Amino acid sequence: ASLEKYGKHLTERPDVCIEALINNAGTFERHDFLQAGMQPWRDQFEVHVFGTIQWTQLVLPLFLKQKKGAIVNVSSTLGLKPTADTSAYSAAKAAMISYTQSLALAYGHAGLRCNVVCPGIVDTPIHSFHQLPTDEKKQVLQSLQGLQPLQRIGTADEIAKAIYFLASDDSSWTTGSILSVDGGINLT
Q: Could you give the CA distance from residue 27 to residue 13 in angstroms, rounded to a whole number?
């Protein structure tokens, strides 16, 4: 209810002009497919897919009224190429990719651009290694570097720059695109 109230307040004001919506909420957990049951699936889809849909439904009427807007959804390279024990997360991120491209097809005629960024391993608190003691975290980070052809994990700033590009007029002829910002891990 508060999301709808906030969204309506924001989008019904005549002085408000929203240029871009960035959907970047996320949680990450590994689980054993047979042992986990349905809860990881519900949790991952609630945050990644249903949250994205709710915010888009709130802002989309304003974009249509303006005849312009950009939506950038943040998925993951795991939505393109899953790994073991990430089935719910990977499926939710793949759904985000498909959803984004569906929006691009449905609303391109109205001036709306919809794109998705797929980060690889990025040094953010979503990963459990952030809770490790400093020495252990350093060892884990070193082991992760070798997974990418560029031999390092990404930074939040690098992902933010990709999002900014897709949200800005610098990408005015770009819609339905999947931008992997992953140090090349999707190639391995």
A: 32
Mean local confidence (pLDDT), 128-138: 89
CA-nearest of 127, 117, 118 to 163 is 117
Q: What is the pLDDT of residues 134-170, one digit of tens each?
A: 999 889 989 999 999 999 999 999 999 999 999 999 9
pLDDT digits (tens, 9 = 90+) for 175-187: 999 999 999 999 9
- Tell me the three state secondary structure of residue 152: coil
- The secondary element (H helix, E strand) that includes residue 118 is strand 112-119
DSSP, res 182? S
Residues labelled as active-site residues: 89
pLDDT at 122: 95
User: How many CA atoms are closer than 13 Å to the CA of 173, on its beta-carbon side?
Assistant: 0
SS3 106: helix
CA torsion sign for 15, 19, 22, 23 is positive
Q: How far, in Å, CA of 52 to CA of 142, rounded?
A: 33
Closest CA to 185 of 83, 71, 73: 83
**Can you count the helices (H) and strands (E) in the chain?**
7, 4
